[in-house]
Amino acid sequence: MSGTSSKEAGKEEFTSRWGILMTAIGMAVGTGNIWRFPRVAAENGGAAFLIPWVIFLFAWAIPLLLAEFALGKTTRRGPAGAIGSLVGEGYNWLGVFIGLVTCFITFYYSVVTGWCLKYFIASFGTLFSLEQTAESYWTGFTTDPIQPVAFHAAALVIGCFIIYRGVVRGIERTNRILIPLLFILLIIAAIRAITLPGASKGLSYLFSPNWSDLRNYQVWLAALTQAAWSTGAGWGLVTTYGIYLRKKDTFALTTFTTAFGNNSASLLAGIAVICTVFAILPEAQARAALGAGNEGLTFIWMPQLFAGMPGGRLFLPIFFLALSSAAISSLIAMLEMASRMLMDMGLPRRKAVPVVGALSFVLGLPSAWHMGFLKNQDWVWGIGLMVSGLFVALAVIKYGAARFRDELINTKEEKHPIGMWFVWVISILVPLEFLAMIGWWFYQSATQFDPEGWWKLRSEISVGTAVIQITLLAVVLLLTNKYWVKRLEKD
Question: What is the count of structural domains for the chain?
Answer without folding.
Answer: 1
